[in-house]
Predict the structure of Glutamate dehydrogenase.
Amino acid sequence: ADRNPGQPEFLQAVTEVMESLWPFIERHPKYAEQGLLDRLVEPERVVMFRVSWVDDHGQVQVNRGYRIQHSMAIGPYKGGLRFHPSVTLSVLKFLAFEQTFKNALTTLPMGGGKGGSDFDPKGKSPGEVMRFCQAFVSELFRHVGADTDVPAGDIGVGGREVGYMAGMMKKLSNRADCVFTGKGLSFGGSLIRPEATGYGTVYFAQEMLKTRGRSFDGLRVSVSGSGNVAQYAVEKAMAVGAKVITVSDSSGTVIDMDGFTPEKLAVLMEVKNHLYGRVSDYAQRTGTHFEAGVRPWHVPVDVALPCATQNELDADDAATLIRNGVLCVAEGANMPSTIEAAKAFEAAGVLYAPGKASNAGGVATSGLEMSQNAERMGWPREEVDARLLQIMTGIHAACLRYGARADGSISYVDGANIAGFVKVADAMLAQGVI
Ligand code: NDP
């Protein structure tokens, strides 16, 4: 804590990982050698930079840009860019740290990184968003590369923003690879990448439910958020027979006891992805119920899929979900549950998967996009989807392997942390003190 003052999210992520790793490290003391843990909690490189751009009124605006290159131990730095006013060094360091373990869990050769800016895309014109993206890349470009660091999207960075940044990257580098993943299909993107995080979260939850002999069929599901991850979690959950009854954003929650339908989801996608509107606009269009200023967790459900942002589900929310009989919580977002909430789920015997396991499908499919780009091919939708399912099933199996407790229960937290750690740590030990 003394080395990282004012970085609560980073300290929270490190605490959560170290608490679950410690008993394992005591049994395997080689992982405490060569300063391994001290090295692992220190990003290899942090780049912070000024982003200046001109708004529609001719005024100069200044934002702060970041790229955290956390670990290259098993492959190029890999992780998304977040554009949101809540972005700080602490938030991005926590995300880059988590990303390192998540990427190891996918079994693909990707290191960990994350970046972004405190720029708020809400209310900005398309021209302003493009100029900001170009200004951001005019500095970022010198730090990234297909074998160095491969950025992608995250909160506030979707296909449109990746397109603008990849375009600027191409112009500055005079190279067609344009480095980013999550690109449009017409210039090197992968089928299924937009769907991958949401689909993958549901694939993972399916595996969790199987351990109790259950399926999604007929289960009530709450989803938080209404962005990229949330939308495709809703789509896949519906497809496997669940009744999805909530979505949300930072202004409140839509509660729809009749459940989502493909038609309603199409309206949500139109409102969020093309009109850049709010879930309240969606509620108005569909005649569904909107509750301002509340989160979805008071609604009784069998499965909860938090897909918005960090620390959006606290101990009180966990207690409410448990009281209402929740069976399974699988995180689509990164660290949406506080440490206390996560502990409460495990103590109550709820099937609980941390984001680094259950939301790894997005980055895994980004890894598949890198492979397709390297071989200058595009794989069919079915092939990418089948590989995604296989990777998520594999991560689930790794969690069972490393997360089994003496009483026969499974801690997905321990399983994901230990499985991810072992791969990164073995690579670091083999490569010496660097
Ligand atoms: P989007 O920008 O598409 O959507 C984000 C959603 O979360 C919006 O509904 C947004 O609401 C809500 N949200 C964001 N910040 C807050 C906040 N401070 N309080 C309440 N709600 C908030 O992002 P994604 O769907 O891509 O990302 C969602 C989560 O999933 C993040 O944690 C991200 O790191 C994680 N993730 C994303 C992956 C991907 O492939 N995209 C991969 C793995 C993890 P509003 O519009 O009101 O801000």
